[in-house]
Design a protein that fits this description.
seven-stranded parallel beta sheet, mainly beta, globular
Length: about 180
């Protein structure tokens, strides 16, 4: 399959496809309640692009050797889980003006920047209230960049993320 593009649709499920050597392999604009799962997305400019998408799930995909693996613009209430994002030239996951998303159990390895979350000052949009935990950041030049207000630790399960370059000491406290 060459690439997939959809505009103004609902309830799409892209699964078990192999998408290689395109600009945007998956481009969704104004899509709700949809799933991208168990795909192989390799050697592209952008592996997966979401614009104005809500209640979306990106699950268990292998996204490798792309300039950007997953870009999410102005999209809220989405789940990114269980993806392997390998060797992204720029970013594994990028959130711009996107809030209330959950990013968990992903492997972001051997890329430039694992996750980049930022605001667009010129149009006054931020990427706040995202929950990022149980991800593995391994051998990225920059594991994460976040200029907004997000949570990188799940207080319910009391766990955060794995960082291959972490050299600090955690303070241990007793919990009764």
């Amino acid at each position: 399959m060459d690439f997939i593009e959809a505009i103004k649709s609902n309830n799409i499920h892209i699964k078990e496809s192999t998408l290689i050597e395109n600009y945007d392999n998956i481009l969704f604009v104004i899509i709700n309640n949809s799933i991208i799962s168990n795909n192989t997305i390799n050697n592209n400019t952008i592996g997966c692009n979401l614009y104005l998408c809500y209640n979306f799930s990106i699950l268990n995909n292998t996204i490798k050797n792309n300039i950007n693996s997953i870009e999410i613009y102005l999209s809220n209430n989405n789940l990114l889980k269980g993806n392997n994002l390998i060797s992204s030239d720029y970013r594994g996951i990028e959130l711009i003006g996107s809030s209330n998303n959950t990013i968990k159990e992903n492997n972001l390895t051997d890329g430039n920047t694992g996750i980049k979350i930022y605001k667009e000052s010129w149009i006054n949009i931020t990427s706040n209230n995202n929950s990022i935990y149980h991800n593995n950041f391994i051998n990225n030049s920059i594991n994460s960049y976040d200029e907004c207000t997000n949570t990188w630790y799940n207080t319910i399960i009391q766990e955060g993320n794995y960082w291959s370059d972490y050299q600090g000491n955690d303070e241990k406290t007793a919990v009764s």
